[in-house]
Amino acid sequence: MEDIVIIGAGTAGLSAAIYARRAGKKAVVLEAMTYGGQIINTPDIENYPGIKHISGFDFATGLYEQATALGAEIKFEKVTGIKLSSDGIKTVKTSSSEYKTKAVILATGAKNRPLGLDREEELTGSGVSYCATCDGAFYKGKTVAVNGGGNTAIEDAAFLSSLCKKVYLIHRRDKFRADAADVEKLKAKENVEFILDSTISRLEGDDTLTGIEIHNVKNAVKQHLDIDGLFIAVGQIPDNSAFADVAELDEKGYIKAGEDCRTKTPGIFTAGDCRTKTVRQLTTAASDGAVAALAACSYCDSTEINS
Amino acid sequence: MAAVNVTKDNFQAEVLESDKPVLVDFWASWCGPCKMLSPIVEQVAESVQDVKICKVNVDDEQELAERYNIMSIPALKVFKNGEVVNEGVGFMPREKVEELIRV
Q1: pTM above 0.90, yes or no
Q2: Would you call A168 exposed, middle or buried from its count of C-beta atoms within 10 A (0-12, 13-18, 19+)?
Q3: Contact B91 A33 (CB under 8 A)
């Protein structure tokens, strides 16, 4: 039997693995895709205390190597659910196996929110993108649109404006969640045009995106735009439906837990972006990983489950 | 078989005129998910005999990237008799890469 099964090998999950191993607990990390989580798409991290500059890939690889060197086992399996039994043992089921454990840490993270339009998935990689820094280089000298009103959307539009001929910023309101100073800076750019109070109602093009239809939410007027690329930056969504029976979820699907990272089930903890919280950053993910791991360690020490 | 680095000069011979199906991995050094996918592609290359695996650096080979309409990386394309028969973008686990080449 394991002491702690950690679900998700992003910053929160790998930080938890480091703390669990250093406390002498057996820990296995289960990951459906690859280690590192969302940060691997970020070229430059400049806000992690103690590290002036590092790429997301190097940061993630450092975390992975640190966790595995300490003896954490990382397995690439998709978790399908958790079964609780009356003796307190949790059985974590994956697509190919199952793990009995005393404690579980849910560190499932969050992923980019799609717009939910017809053919959006099919056109992803063929004109539709969720990562301006990853894919922007392929749109040099072309016309693109960014959809969203948060910091990511504004940063993406600013980044793309230095490469592209023309950048439209489409936002469903006329006010921004993004920092006002950054919005003003973007407005001043000659090749950026704001289209406010508007949503995207249709993606156009056969094999690749050639344009979009825009719907003005105030006057219901529809408008067509010819674009080569659409960058979607409308926030993140969690994916915790497999755990709804062992942890309480809020209306958006985040796992309800306070700063102590405890869920409603004793022995099941949660860490990182998948938890209800206001600030989702690398530092808060790492912090949650430590808090959840140490809470899980003391749960293992106090529980009467025999291994 | 180890993966082969391909440029516009040997693309015709290595990929289009290959007698085996070819999996081409379009990647760049600044792309995190590409670097995550790269070892998986290498593992697949070592484990299969009937499919050739090639890598194209899109920064060095912009012409090839444009010719194959690469707009997002990592991008994997499977060629059979010079034609693209299957493709996928973004990081994917090993089973997905193996699924792509089984077409």
Answers
A1: no
A2: buried
A3: yes
